[in-house]
Amino acid sequence: MQGLYNNRVGSILDYAAEADLSSVPNPGVHGNAYLQKTEDHCNLNLNKYLQAISLATHVTKGAGVVAMKVTSLGNPFLLERMSAVPRDELTAEERSLVERLEERMNLLGQCAQNAGVRLLVDAEQSYFQPAIDELALMMMKNWNKEESVVFNTYQCYLKDAYGKLAAHLEASDREGFSLGAKLVRGAYMKMERQRAAERGYPSPIHDTIEDTHECFDSSVSLMLEQVKRQRGQVVIASHNENSILRAMEEMERLGISSQNPGVMFGQLQGMCDYLTYSLGARGYHAYKYLPYGPLNEVMPYLIRRAQENGDVLATTDMEKYLMLAEVKRRMHAALSRATRQLLLPEYAAPRTPVH
Ligand SMILES: Cc1cc2nc3c(=O)[nH]c(=O)nc-3n(C[C@H](O)[C@H](O)[C@H](O)COP(=O)(O)OP(=O)(O)OC[C@H]3O[C@@H](n4cnc5c(N)ncnc54)[C@H](O)[C@@H]3O)c2cc1C
């Protein structure tokens, strides 16, 4: 974190915790009860996020950002139920679990606000997303007063992403909170399409990649308008160079300075470093997502991220090109040093120290 900070790049602490329907016991086959063990695990994760907020405050001196996944704070089966049925159809047990989940999330919101740290609520699979959106909106209403402490994530590969973002902006105007939006293309595309095909409902993903690009870029424009009006803040989370250049041009057109804290750019650690460092060097608020955690949790987490981003990893030609160019440059420099030493031995002699 300190190394990035010295290079004008901020850190987004990303504790490696998440859950899916396959990773916790199904309450339906456990005597219709949600297991206390899962709740205990959520409380442990809550403590990890609280530690991350404290670390972010101390290392990054007022520019700290922490990411969180709602599936690590609430039972995935509960989130799926919350997404599928209205509140009054939940059982008494489920309603009390929802209350505990809201308490955890509000505690994080309050601590983040007190510490001056921003909290990014990650987007996950579409069968959890209505619940995640509802909880993120609740947090934004509670904690985003003058500026955005809590950010919800909008996956622009979804056909309904732009409409949802516009509806949340209307709600923020109506109810007087500042909307924080992290814009991504989305990481679960293959799984979403496969699930839709297997269950026979229309795919929620845009039919073409061009539609996704269009949705992402117009969502960026919409949010930049809000930044201009001081009614929202945005994290442009992408490795797509065209989208980043477009966003920079749009900022210039709207008269938004590169240093405006309402616009942040984010890339994953180890991906497209040339973009992050160039943005940081030009004065933009550039960040790296830093996954961390115990080895047995962080490795499967990273493997899942690599699987989800497989297409992107395979197409980062620019990054490969730049790395190769750097390797060649270093080899060339080493070779010419060695040649000079052979031809001009005095070049290799140790210099007389200056006293
Ligand atoms: C800082 C940061 C935070 C992130 N947080 C989240 C998060 O909370 N939730 C989440 O889901 N993801 C998250 N992601 C991952 C992100 O959603 C993408 O998976 C990843 O960044 C690739 O998109 P891109 O804009 O970087 O790249 P691009 O290089 O533009 O990649 C585009 C990729 O999109 C895919 N694609 C999208 N739509 C279509 C389509 N309709 N047809 C065909 N292919 C399509 C293709 O696989 C293509 O390779 C995050 C990424 C970053 C950098």
From TrEMBL:
<dbReference type="InterPro" id="IPR002872">
    <property type="entry name" value="Proline_DH_dom"/>
</dbReference>
<keyword id="KW-0560">Oxidoreductase</keyword>
<dbReference type="GO" id="GO:0005739">
    <property type="term" value="C:mitochondrion"/>
</dbReference>
<dbReference type="GO" id="GO:0004657">
    <property type="term" value="F:proline dehydrogenase activity"/>
</dbReference>
<feature type="domain" description="Proline dehydrogenase">
    <location>
        <begin position="38"/>
        <end position="313"/>
    </location>
</feature>
<comment type="function">
    <text>Converts proline to delta-1-pyrroline-5-carboxylate.</text>
</comment>
<keyword id="KW-0285">Flavoprotein</keyword>
<protein>
    <recommendedName>
        <fullName>Proline dehydrogenase</fullName>
        <ecNumber>1.5.5.2</ecNumber>
    </recommendedName>
</protein>
<dbReference type="GO" id="GO:0071949">
    <property type="term" value="F:FAD binding"/>
</dbReference>
<keyword id="KW-0642">Proline metabolism</keyword>
<dbReference type="Pfam" id="PF01619">
    <property type="entry name" value="Pro_dh"/>
</dbReference>
<dbReference type="InterPro" id="IPR029041">
    <property type="entry name" value="FAD-linked_oxidoreductase-like"/>
</dbReference>
<dbReference type="GO" id="GO:0010133">
    <property type="term" value="P:L-proline catabolic process to L-glutamate"/>
</dbReference>
<comment type="similarity">
    <text>Belongs to the proline oxidase family.</text>
</comment>
<keyword id="KW-0274">FAD</keyword>
<dbReference type="InterPro" id="IPR015659">
    <property type="entry name" value="Proline_oxidase"/>
</dbReference>
